Amino acid sequence: MGIGIDTLAPLAFIIVFAYTVFGLTGFGSTITAMPMLVLVIPLRMAVPLMLVFDLASGLLLGLKNRRFIERREALRLIPFMLGGMAVGVLALVKAPERMLLVILGLFILGYAAWSLLVRGKPQPLAGAWAAPFGAVGGIFTALFGAGGPFYTIYLTRRLPDKLTLRATISGVLFFSAVARLLLFSGAGLYQQESLPLLAAVLLPCALGGLYLGNRLHQRLPAERIKQAIWVVLIAGGASLVLRNL
Predict the structure, then answer these.
(1) Which partner for 237 in 5, 74, 101, 108 could form a disulfide, CB atoms 3.0-4.6 Å apart?
(2) Angstrom distance (rounded) from CA 7 to CA 3
């Protein structure tokens, strides 16, 4: 795949937009970007590309509250997450891309609907639920970089303290990003033509979007922003399903 201005310009816009969303809300960079990225580049290139930016932003922000990580809960999730990621990488490499894009679209629609409709105090979960949430989250993490909601649902119902919850989610996500980097490298996904160059050229766009989102965070109403993001996600998810059925 050659890199031309007709490819770089839309990619740069998508990356800046996705990481502005992340800077504004603290979530959603990959799930926002992916429906648009796959219009320009293949899914098998888009997923490892976004991982580079997620790792860079994670290192930049740092695990500031890492001493507050609840290691027991993180260690419950991680073995099942790694198993799910192994399955997800195999599917990413072997499965037909159209089928994967339909699954991504349905996942985005389901996640947006759940986020809009579910209200009230989360009900506690038993520790045994780490197995299904970790495994399914690992599969979606490897396939689309979008397993975070599964880990968050589980940990929100296990950790009542907000600081501990945020630190533990950040720690699990950072660990999953490092594990994905190793799995993707082993599967040869970073040997794709133009991918390293694309990552290097677009990294400033991701960091610029993150900076912009952080600057705007205090100036814009959080609830309105989230509502707008759900509209974008629903449109993107529906478009993926309709285009690939």
Answers:
(1) 108
(2) 6
